Amino acid sequence: MGKENVIVALDIGTSKITTLIGDVDESGLLHIVGFGEAVSKGIEKGIVVKPNDVISAIRKSVDEAENIAGSKISGVIANVSGYHIECRNDTERIEFDTNQKVITQMDISQLIEKVSSKIQPQKENLEVIHIIPKKYILDDEDEVIDPIGLVASKIEGKFHIVLDRINAYTNLKKVIESSGLRVVDFVANPIASATAVLFPEEKEMGIAVLDIGAGTTDIAVYKDGSIEFIKSLPVGGNQVTMDIAHRFKVSKEEAENLKIDYGVAIPEASQGDIIEVYQRGSDEPIHIDQAELIDTIEARLSEIFELTKKTLDELGYAGKINGGIVLTGGVANTPYIKELAESIFNMDVRVGKPKEYSGFSDKLMFPQYSTSIGMLHFAKNRISVTNSHPVHNSTGFDIFKVGRSIIDKIKSIF
Ligand SMILES: Nc1ncnc2c1ncn2[C@@H]1O[C@H](COP(=O)(O)OP(=O)(O)OP(=O)(O)O)[C@@H](O)[C@H]1O
Ligand SMILES: [Mg+2]
Fold it and tell me: Which has the least CB within 10 A, 179, 195, 249, 290?
């Protein structure tokens, strides 16, 4: 394992904390060499509610990954999620004195500085998570992805900015640091999951990714090849479980088991099972009809889809995401969820699993690992971009907010 190419993802979710140690080989392929997982405690909908519980769960997950990889971790890439993350799109331009200016990294950095100077994080109580370049337009006409080395008389840059509420961000960073880890960088959950599951053609056509986890539903919309919108709704699989617990008066654990063992998303898929359950505090079993269970699951999942649809419609994406919807996150394992989503969105739907990695694939090829594998891909892509265009500027301003320093930090992870 080459130390300079090691990246560690720490996915702090509502139900689980996953640690993945990834090794990027010379040809840029990602190999997972360490995997650890602990039941998540003390975090709800992307907010730290019991810091000490989060710290011990992080340590458990990291220790397991370290033992498997046979190496110590110090620096990690972590994810931000929850209602407190938000996004903006912005455009900036520079007109050059000459008609044939060769575009350099300095020009790109200047565009990003212009975008960044408008944000005023302190005043707005925000922390900048990403400033992602989407595309550049040269001389008002030519759209390019990588303008460095090309000539133009003017350049316009289009950027996607992701922000987090400063206190939510600081509290998360603090618990990770209190676990003895250094945060190399943060990645927004919706972007991480989308990175793991989307194909380039889907991003071109326009598509929405829904990562439905235990506590949050993370939405990412891509159009014309790049990220357009993200949001994290405070709804997820935990609510499905709690609905079952309330309706049938069973414990949360029993409700979760019922959901996993007998749950499907649409009534047509019912096998007509009669299920024996023990209600809270009772030794006498009762019998419930699988149809009632499915009714409860369908109602809550439909509500999550309706909420997402409303969000997408209000933003005017309805007719623009021709690629349809990709469902991922643990809830995407629900049998027949694709069919339910199709009936609500009236669009093509597929279930997305993480792709383009090797190692632990028997354990990781499920939708609940899209975030952690996507975090590794996101960091890997960023390193290759910054390596191919080293940042040279007098201010030391960094292309992706932390782009330059991330390389140095990642190099010293172990
Ligand atoms: N086979 C299944 N059928 C139905 N639900 C499932 C299945 N497998 C997992 N889930 C649900 O998926 C959820 C966990 O998903 P995931 O691991 O993606 O969440 P998380 O990352 O911990 O949480 P979040 O991202 O919301 O903070 C739980 O609510 C769990 O009940
Ligand atoms: Mg998650």
Answer: 249
